[in-house]
Amino acid sequence: MSSNDKSLRIDVVDVGTIIAPSDTTILNALESKGVHIHYHCREGFCGACRTKLIEGEVEYTTDPLAFIDDDEILPCCCVAKCPLKIKVPL
């Protein structure tokens, strides 16, 4: 089984749990499950989708240019490498 065939659990604080394909950006996974998250560019430039990463690890599909703290991710341009726990701004 390739990594593209796997689905991963994403626990979203104050929202619930979603199961997402491992090759889908976290932003797309959240949107597909009806989780509203603010964004603009979808490419890591603006930082509007900045989200707190509580547990887990991500891989960026595009190097983000927006500033993020060590405990933050840009869900528009990263995929989950393992189960995650995140807190999206509501």
UniProtKB/TrEMBL annotation:
<dbReference type="InterPro" id="IPR012675">
    <property type="entry name" value="Beta-grasp_dom_sf"/>
</dbReference>
<protein>
    <submittedName>
        <fullName>2Fe-2S ferredoxin-like protein</fullName>
    </submittedName>
</protein>
<dbReference type="InterPro" id="IPR036010">
    <property type="entry name" value="2Fe-2S_ferredoxin-like_sf"/>
</dbReference>
<keyword id="KW-0830">Ubiquinone</keyword>
<dbReference type="InterPro" id="IPR001041">
    <property type="entry name" value="2Fe-2S_ferredoxin-type"/>
</dbReference>
<dbReference type="Pfam" id="PF00111">
    <property type="entry name" value="Fer2"/>
</dbReference>
<feature type="domain" description="2Fe-2S ferredoxin-type">
    <location>
        <begin position="6"/>
        <end position="90"/>
    </location>
</feature>
<dbReference type="InterPro" id="IPR006058">
    <property type="entry name" value="2Fe2S_fd_BS"/>
</dbReference>
<dbReference type="GO" id="GO:0051537">
    <property type="term" value="F:2 iron, 2 sulfur cluster binding"/>
</dbReference>
